[in-house]
Design brief:
- By secondary structure, this protein is mostly helical.
- Strand 1 and strand 2 form a beta hairpin.
- The chain has a domain of 72 residues.
- It starts with a helix and ends in a 10-residue tail after the last helix.
- It is extended and about 70 Å long.
- Strands 1-2 form a two-stranded antiparallel sheet.
- Helix content is 34%, strand content 7%.
Amino acid sequence: MKRFFVLFLLLTFAMSTNAVHAQNGDRLPPIKYTEYKLKNGLRVIMHQDKSTPIVGVNVWYHVGSKNETAGRTGFAHLFEHLMFQGSKNYDSDYLKVVDELGASTLNGST
């Protein structure tokens, strides 16, 4: 039992020193990026890292639960799901072209 207690104390101490170190120092270097606005108002923030042949794309809409009123919640989440179902103008395979280009993950969040 004494060994277990000593081991527990050592592990607790080791983990707490890492947490303190992470809180106090070693900040990550700033990420260089380019920001511009398209004619349609879309704000684009671009960062290039040519170390690997990977592309990441995020689309953010400034709407969601923060814009909903009491008694009328969940619409942003509903619309997120509906967005991937297709529409009158785009069938549900509209993301197929993205998949064929090699996209490995498509995900939405609210």
